[in-house]
Amino acid sequence: MISGATRGSGRGDALPAHLLKSENEVTVIPARGLGSTTLHDQVRELVAQSAGGRTDRPIYHVFCSPDPGIADDAAVRERFWTLFESEFGMAGQPYCGVEHRKGGRLHEHRVYGVVRPSGAVVDLAWDYVRREKCGRIVEFEHGMEAVPSKHARSIARRLRQDGRPDVANWLVASGCTESVRPVARLTPCERATEERTDVALDDLRRATLSAWRETSDGPAFMAALRVRGLDLRRGRVGPVIMDATGTAHLATRVLGAASRRFEGERILAAVVRARLGNLQLEEMTDGRRGHRAAPGDAGTPAPCDPGGPRTAGAGRVGFRRFGGDPFGPDGGGIGRDGRGPGPAMGRLRAITPARGLVLRRGLNRLDPMLTRYGAATARARHATDRIDADAARDQRRAWALWGLTDIWGIPLR
Fold this sequence. Notes:
Shape: flat
Strand content: 5-15%
Structural class: alpha+beta
CATH class of the domain at 2-144: Alpha Beta
Order of helices and strands: EHEHEHEEHHHHHHEEEHHHHH
Radius of gyration: 38 Å
Strand order of the largest sheet: 1-3-5-4-2
CATH architecture of the domain at 2-144: 2-Layer Sandwich
Largest sheet: 5 strands, antiparallel
Helix content: 40-55%
């Protein structure tokens, strides 16, 4: 029994589109707790029902794929879903889904809403191990062999706590609890990278490990990589190996995975960093986090942008400031034409009397405006004082006539 799950927001049509891919023989299964008829609308309805929950990932996508050796496939899947919903307390949760037939094998996908009517969110902690426990129970009940799992010991312990010692004993007898924990060849992210670049990561690992074993220092290791069509660059968190497509792979991770897979003993990251730590590496220019702009490089400025061709210091972006350096966009306070304040004062003294009269009239107009604003402020202040004085007089009059009053002036006695 194989199962898997992902959790997400459910917004958009990516998940329904994935489930309805034409490469599979697709059958939409009856939904539970939903009124919509199409899969796209059902997923949207699940998201809408979760509006009152305190989560931004209200969708839980689960699939199960029974072993082909089991004759009654439908009964096996139904048994798995019963165990799954009991384990996670999702017996009443709405869901929708599809059945896929691919390569002669039938498997089922369900999309559950994890927000309860009360607004509480279903507890999905340790969901991988809990789903594997359901799968082991199904295998036991249908006479199948136990699927090896790195969580076998934890599953056996939990089965005994749940009152299923028969399944726990079967799991122990199969040897799964004592066997070496299996390690996946690729992580989901690495698998996606391999599909995108068409570069087999095992080939990359073999070449990198071979270059590592036949050298003893950093420069020789880098030269050996280049002979194999690879390169060593400086990445964000450490040295990275660049493949032929320009994709970056963290060197410590590649060497660790290669040594564990092909030699049985992992090369520690500290050992890799010790050998490569003193290398002066070039910054990677492509691949993951590639094409990053250099600090301070703003690209080609527009004609009217600060630092553009119209201003001093063309090609750079800076801030206008008093007394800036000569390379700043403000020309160091000497004007765009490179002249200081002296020539400007000379030009003011040299203007004609008629031009000077116009300039003085324009400057003198500021004074009446300031006086007008000041007079308006004084009138507003006097009006406020009059209102306060009237309120105080009314309060004194109320005390004199009526005694103590409330805030509306009504006598309290």
